[in-house]
Every structure is written in structure tokens, then in C-alpha cells.
Amino acid sequence: MLIDMHTHAGRPGRAGPLDRAVLAGMAPAGVTAAVISAIADMPVIRRDPVTRRLSQFREPEPGECLAAVDDYLAAIEQAGARIATEPGEIGGEPAVVMAVEGCDFLEGDLDRLDRMAERGVRSIQLTHYRPNETGDIQTAPPVHGGLTPFGAAAVRRMNRLGVMVDVAHCTEEVVRGVLNETVHPILCTHANLVEPGHKDGNHPRYISLDYARMVAETGGVVGGWIAVLYEEKLAGMIRHILRLIDAIGIDHVGIGTDLPAGGDRHGMTDFSQHALIPQMLRERGLTAEETEKVCAGNWLRVFRMVRA
Asked: For the chain, how many helices (H) and strands (E)?
């Protein structure tokens, strides 16, 4: 079984349908499930032409981020893929699990979380590329100093709704606040550990050992990330997964490619290379049981616990 904890599979652009050919590639690659995230702040972020990094360029209009999420989820629903809303629905024919990246769509209304849960969304990330009303982000100066009271209420509501809390892109201070609120394991779906002295080892989206340990402390999972590994490519993601295993243990590491982000440079534009992941992990010394945990079992355990 092979599960990707965080993708934007099939929709590299800001609008339009998902590429069904990309989703059709899941089965040949042995991908059992892919978590596809709708991007809440998509209308108000853009890539800097010099740094190539995403950042906010304007404030959203009222309802704009919610509309972006609704549009993205509709594209997933209309793509014809099987959508799984419960752990028991994962297995056999490949399935998609719907997620949202960034709580920018809330605009002070926690009941919108209920609406997303009713629609079948099962994982929600607090922040993305703009500090929002839940907390600060890794790639911009802090505004709130951590998790806000509204963010804490959002975490508690997601716990009650059976929606996984994803802290990818959040600052370490936000994660510390989430630990004080959550009663369930949390996710950091796509990140690598900082690696001082290594090229790009201090990338602003990399996380400290303390950060990773806080996620693991909840029983949660950190997904190894390929999107910025332009030189090492897939071999680099495997190397970072092994670094995470050494740091926080085999029970707390998964796969979060973020594809197709950066795919034109690191080579993973679709699911075709996913079949190599378990093979490469075994070649690097993991047992069959350990490989299964990283490739699917750890994320599935969190999903089961949150939905129990």
C-alpha cells in the first residue's frame, strides 16, 4: 500500500478541471490513496520571479478564499476519482482523500469547518502562504506570535469533527500552541528537517528537530518532501525520509511529495515514480514492515484515530 499525504495532483494551475490522466496514473504506480489539497489562498499568492518563492501580494476579498476552496473541491469531485471519507474505504481501487491547505476560507466562521467536514474534507492545514487568523507562517514575519485564540478554537472544532489537523507551513510557535489544544495526533504533511551546511539545508520551509518531535509527541506524522530538491530529486527525498526516521522514529514518518510543485525541476510531475519509493527504502535498509509504515501505515493510523 502506498499513500501520498499531500498533493495537488492533476491541477497544477489556478483553475480548471483536474487532469484525469494524472489520477489514472495512481493505479499503475501502486498508489492506493492520494490526499489532494484545495488551496485556500490561491487567489492572493504568486511566485516571486527572482526567488521563485510564493508569497501574498494582496488581501483577499470577502468570500474569495472560500470560493477558491469550493472551486477546487468541485474539480476533485468532478474528476471521476473515487473519494474516500473513512479509513475503511482505502484499499483496492485507488482513492482520493480531500483536504484544504490554509484556513483562510474561515473568515471568523468556525461553522465553515463543519461544512467542509460534511462535504468529505478530512484534513485541513491551518496556514499556507499568508499569516491568517489562525496563526503565523514559516515564510513571513510573525504577526500573532503563535497560535491565535481563534486558531485554538479551530483545532478543537476539527478534533470534534474528525478532521486531521495539518501544521505544515506553520511556525514552531503555532505548533507548540496546537499541542496544548489537540486531543488527536496531528500531521506536518510536507517538510524536511533543517540541515545546516547542506545546500538549501536552511530552506525556510524546513523544520527543526524540536518541531518534528512535537508532531511525533502527539502520535503524528511528518511527510518527507520533494518539492525543493532540484538537484537530489527522488533520491534526496528518500534521504530526508531516512533522516526523519533517525530523528523521530519509524512510527512518525510518511510521504508528502506536494506534487506537482516544482515537478518541472525535480522530475516528479505525476505518480509514475511513486513505485520506486518502497523499493528505494528497502534498498536503504528498511524492513518490509518499516517500509509499509512509512508508505502508508503511519498516516492511516492517524486517520483511524481521528475518525474513531
From this structure: 11, 11
Strands 33-39 and 45-47: unpaired
H or E element that contains 100: strand 95-101
The superfamily CATH assigns to domain 3-307 is Metal-dependent hydrolases (3.20.20.140)
Beta-carbon contacts of residue 65 (< 8 Å; ≥ 6 apart):
40, 41, 43, 44, 102, 104, 105, 107
Distance between CA atoms of residues 105 and 23, nearest Å: 26
Count the residues in the chain: 308
| Bridge pairing between strands 54-56 and 45-47 | antiparallel
Domain spans of the chain, in order of start? 3-307
For residue 82, how far is the Cα from the chain centroid? 20
**Could you tell me if 224 and 196 are in contact, meaning their C-beta atoms sit under 8 angstroms apart?**
no
Q: Rg for the chain (alpha carbons), in Å?
A: 17
Residues near 105 by Cβ (< 8 Å), separated by ≥ 6? 40, 65, 66, 68, 69, 112
Cell numbers at 134, concatenated? 489562525
Low-confidence ranges of the chain (pLDDT < 50): none
